[in-house]
Amino acid sequence: MAPDFSEIILSIEEREHVRLLAMKEQAASSPLSPGKWSRKEILGHLIDSASNNHQRFVRAQLDDKLDFPEYVQTDWVEVQDYADESWALLVDLWSAYNLHLAHVVANIPPEKLDATCRVGSGDPVRLEDLIAEYVEHMEHHLAQISGSVD
Fold first, then answer.
1. Which of 3, 33, 60, 92 has the fewest CB atoms within 10 Å, i.e. the most exposed one?
2. Within a domain: residue 15?
3. What does the pLDDT look like over 96-143, one tens digit per residue?
4. HSE of 123 in the Cβ direction (CA atoms, 13 Å)?
5. How confident is the model at residue 3 (pLDDT cuts 50, 70, 90)?
6. What's the number of domains the chain is made of?
7. In sequence order, which residues have a C-beta less than 8 Å from that of residue 127 and are 6 or more positions away?
8. Cβ 106 vs Cβ 21: under 8 Å
9. Is residue 78 part of a domain?
10. Does the residue 76 lie in any domain?
């Protein structure tokens, strides 16, 4: 039986929302190390990931094969200036987006999970695999924010 990704996303949001909000603005603004993103920029990157994947999760249900543009992460983070955004706003936006994505994922008909998508020049992947990658990617970066992984 496939994992219930909707429930996984909900549990991550529940676990992280309060913890992230408790972080002080100054700590969130400081780069993790010289030349690296701050926690604000990492969370902004996760918002971008939610935004890009939202499109993929919805559109893949409407077409059996889709090609999506590549996500140029450094440019997106820079253009949106997450470093100067309010930490509380970023946390709430990330949280709300993931609550919505959990809802979207919960309503994907099982037969649509086999729709294939190509992101940039990558190999085609099934929608279900995109969802799994989204969850894994989010967990990795949340661990960076908490300081438990580089």
1. 33
2. yes
3. 999 999 999 999 999 999 999 999 888 999 999 999 999 999 999 999
4. 3
5. confident
6. 1
7. 56, 57, 60, 61, 108, 112, 113, 114, 115, 116, 117
8. no
9. yes
10. yes
pLDDT band at 92 (very low <50, low <70, confident <90, very high): very high
The answer on pLDDT for 37 being more than 60 is yes
Residue type, 16: E
For 78-103, the DSSP string reads HHHTGGGS-HHHHHHHHHHHHHHHHH
**31 part of a folded domain:** no
Residue 1 pLDDT class (50, 70, 90 cuts) = very low
| Mean pLDDT for all residues in the chain | 93
Kindly tell me the number of DSSP H helices and DSSP E strands found in the chain: 6, 3
Full residue range of the structural domain in which residue 118 is found: 5-26+41-146
**CATH value at residue 14:** 1.20.120.450
**Among candidate residues 24, 2, 150, the one with its CA nearest the CA of residue 86:** 24
93-117: buried (b, 16+ CB within 10 Å) or exposed (e) per residue?
Answer: bbbebbeebbebbeebeeebbebbb
